[in-house]
Predict the 3D structure of the following.
Amino acid sequence: MSDALEQDALWEDFHRVVNMTSAELAAWLRVRDADEEVEPLPDQAGTGTGQHVLAILQKRRTDLTEDDLRVMQKVVDTVTAQADLENEPAAEDTGLRHRLMTLGHDPLKA
């Protein structure tokens, strides 16, 4: 398989597991980091990986970097492994759901 085919497959897999829009993810990252004492600037909210996923969602396929591809593979692997273990978490498992949402995957979304 060529690099282009692998990147195409990764692009499709990434957009299959990342089921939140960039607006939904950005809002979630801001809410997740909101605190009574300190709140980061909106464009700095969330984990580094969450911010990177958000940046990837705003890119075209042709603009991806090697670092983007690495993060995309990490997200696909993480979400897929979790889905294989749990068959999607139950609504009561909010901790797991919130961790996956930080990667752009809401397990309760159809």
